[in-house]
User: Fold these one by one.
Assistant:
Number 1:
Amino acid sequence: MAGVLVLVEHAGGEPDELSLQALTFARGYASGEPVEAVLIGDGAAGAAPALGEHGVATAHVAELDGGFAPQASARAVAELAGRLSAAAIVAAGSDRGNEILAHAAVMTGGTLAANCIAATPGDPAQVTRMRWGGSLLEEARLHGSVKLLTVAPHAVAIEPAPCAEPDVQPFAPELRDEDLVVRVTERVDTSTGGLSLAESPVVVSGGRGVGSSEGFGALEELAGLLGGVVGCSRAVTSAGWRPHTDQVGQTGTKISPELYIPCGISGATQHMAGCKGAKKILAINADPEAPILASADYAVVGDLSEIIPAITAELRRVRAG
Amino acid sequence: MFGALGLVAALGLFGGIFARRARLLVRLVRMGKPSGIERADELPARLRQEAVVVLGQRKLLQKLVPGLMHAFIFWGFLVLFPTIVIAMIGIVDRESTLPWLGHQGWFALLVDVFVVLVFAGVGIALYIRKVVRPNRFEGSHLGEADLILGWITGIVTTLLLWHAARIALGLNEYDADWAPVSNALSGLFGDGDVSEALERVLIWAHVLLILGFLAYLPRSKHLHIFTAAVNVYFARTRARGRLEPLRFDEDLPEEEMRFGIGTVEDLTWKQMVDSMSCTECGRCQEVCPAWATGKTLSPKLVIMGVRDHLFAEGPLALAARESGEAYEGPLVASTDSLEEMAWDCVTCGACVRECPVNIEHVDHILDLRRHLVMVESRFPTEAEPMLRDVERQSNPWGKPQSERAAWTEGLDVRVLEPGDRAPEVLYWVGCAASFDERARVTAQSTAKLFAAAGVDFAILGPREACNGDPARRMGNEYVFQAYAEQNVETLEQAGVRKIVASCPHCFNTLANEYPDFGGSYEVVHHTELLAELVRDGRLSPAATEQTVTYHDSCYLARHNDVLAQPRELAAAVGRPIEMQRSGKRTFCCGAGGAHMWMEENAKPINEERVREAAATGAETLAVACPFCTVMLDDGVQSTGAGMRVADVATLLAEAVEAGADGDRSDAGADGKAGA
């Protein structure tokens, strides 16, 4: 076919969102050449028909027994790519996508570029990929007979391309014993309930400016109303007002909420290192010179003991109304 | 005849016990891995060290009373050494003595004087141990110390009484008036058979006590008698802030490769001699900021732990080697609380400076960390983001490298691009002064001052990467060496010869550690260059009435002897007052050894230091290190000390500005007068 084979991950009979992004990416890369999909594991056949919405005419399905085994999945992908003479293999830049394609690269003798955000076919192919946790974009040339690409999550928007329901072709890859050495044998649920500081969409933090452990009551109330949790600065844990598990910062928890509300926190480098992932920062501080105001999207300069109750009261009023 | 045979038997017995133990110790040290730095060079410097530290007892005399106590006993035994030979000759033939020396009256006087001084020394020691009971002895073997003091007393008592008995019997080869103490005591003896028998008993008791002591010593903490002089000889002669580099090159034979201290087989010979030299005096413990603030670490307990581990596991490792088997013993870090202690250290080096026998505690602690980090991957989790950010983002806070020169906004600072003409001085800003809000002020002040004085300087901007110190002090030698190589390459390409660093940690690394990686530059700290500019009249600060106390950074003062220049600057901007612990005996701010990026247990070190600074009554706490700035400023806020914390460069910039304003208004006044 000399086209592109896309590994589609799926769960609960639905193709995975990141894999659909990878499909959009692959169609662009294929520039007209055929794009075929491969789905592996339990429930693969159920997820295949939905791919018609995304321009897939042929979906290969390998219902492998047992838990997920990265090398076995890679064997299926590599075998299929060989049979189809695919010029490129694309997968989502998920943990699994990266892992399977890394194995597949070895099996096919191809070259892999992970976390791509753009690619132009050719020999060599031109790729732009994310390095160092997204802090660096690398322009690279990809040589090799088979090119394997994983797509950085959320770097490409899904563009549906409806066509006929795909032709689903089951196949059974020839697995070797060593392909099943590493596989998932058991799942243990670790969810503990409640919202963690690291994951909470809203974090209200207090610093030395809060004045005392009692002062955190108002912050708890505000966080509760916003569906968030309370954090604090290092000065607060040093003073013993809050436990270390509440600390946001370089040596505490790194957070990335939608909204971060630091109250009475000056914004020392050590603190800012922990909240640089926040989408929006609303700083409340009595000191107009506090460095945190420079990093904040919104800032209120004034007395915490007046401002926080005012916000809380307004929130209650709006919600009641 | 009986005497000679008895002496030979005693020498054989005690000498044998001694030799057996000595052989084990020598075999252990020979098993030690090579040290990472040259320790046999600079003969004159090492001999001087020997003369000053060992013979002169200088480090002991840092504490006057305990120092005199030790000096009396030590000098006493040096002087009394020939009396051992005299006593042995006396056992064989009571009518004989050492040719010449045994007949000298002045020597008899010297012996009497030093016997008294040894008694005085023992008396002081007992007073210190039983009455004063300083907390530095916590964790030391106190009973063993008492036994040794008793033994010493026995040796000099029998010597003195033996001399007295000989005078009473008329056996003295010198004029008895030369030996007033022995002579006075001779009245205790008559001249009959009883005295003759007593003379024999005393001489035998004396010699057996000495031989017994000799046999006991290498099994006790008093082993330092043999090892201390060796240890002092091989200690660092300079660049005390330089860590021993680990060698990872592939052509290194496997048995020489080490990743810090894992098992006993990874100890260097120097670390072994260090541990054998410790006499548990606890001076290191007394000055340790971690110990002073209630943490687990005591440098003394680290060295004792290494020693205990060495003596327990070393013989097993030797036996395994002999039988050609692989030794698979426990980690040294598993001894007592060594692992926990290793993470408490701020690498301030106060222990090393204080140690009377030049033990280098920080090398042990760093090597323990290196193994835990590089082999076991076991370290305080909160330091993980720092290590990751240093590795990926070239700075410990994970700031974008492209913002490194952002602090220069509005200032005229040349950023060196590849191919640009090299400046006379490269200003190495460091991560803290580049990114930290409070420390940036220092960089801005320094740049303004350089510009005002017409210094030809430039910065590397985004091409400057972390020097690697935080990773290295954390134990991650790989990351450090990668940065050392990268930065040396950048500096070489830029044609840099002279560097001024704003951070004492960068300064120490660039000056003392980069030469190990091919980068040798003239490196100064900004306080040194600024003091020179003031001295040359290129900067004219106007001093104010503000009282200023200067806090010495460990890496500047203790590790690198930069003491005078920051003080000159403090004096140029205000009225200086010294803190109790200053200069080379400074007390850490709490950030060293990568503690800037770790959580602190027990009491905060920075608050302890701020309280000391506040006690001077000074309005301004002057510093010369960005980490001290942050730590002490935090400490001032949490203790409510009400002082201003500022880098001397910032204070100088203000004073120079005030001076310029003064000049302008003077000029204005002159102008009017002229008109």
Number 2:
Amino acid sequence: MKNPLDSLWGTVISGVVLTVILYEVVKNFLN
Amino acid sequence: MELVPALARWLHLLSGIMWIGLLYYFNFVQVAAMKAATADGTAAGISKHVAPRALLFFRWAAVVTWLAGAALLGGYFVSAFTLSKGYAGIGVGAWLGTIMLLNVWGLIWPNQKKILGLKPATDKEKNKARRVAFLASRTNTMLSIPMLFFMATGWHHPF
């Protein structure tokens, strides 16, 4: 599988996905 | 308005714009520009005159941003970094920023020194350094997206 960080779009999409995951973690488990 | 938190916030924003602005310059502009410049034989202009200056402001802006952020957290520093109740949002942002700072000084800068010829390296070492620095820089670009979300949304914390 190609590393998503090799492309700019892959990097941006990975960042947005990570944001959603971390948001859910903080909302549900840390607050 | 309290003076110290106001100055810390101001400095945090100024240096943060410089740090992340240069990070986005490297990732959105310079990587593609270097590829094109290498193809037409003009890459030396970027690697000799632009990249070292950009990296100087980039790495020191990262330090100032982190220190100003720590000053801004003040007495809530430990609560943020231990992700205490009510501080987890800013804590995640602070952790992401800290990981990014460590990436700058631990991976990007040491490898860029080899790539730019500021530190002796064989061609094989330079090629490896290019890949490591590239991936560390892309990782920071990726991490900046949630980092800015948690820093900017003012979520469940007084900052």
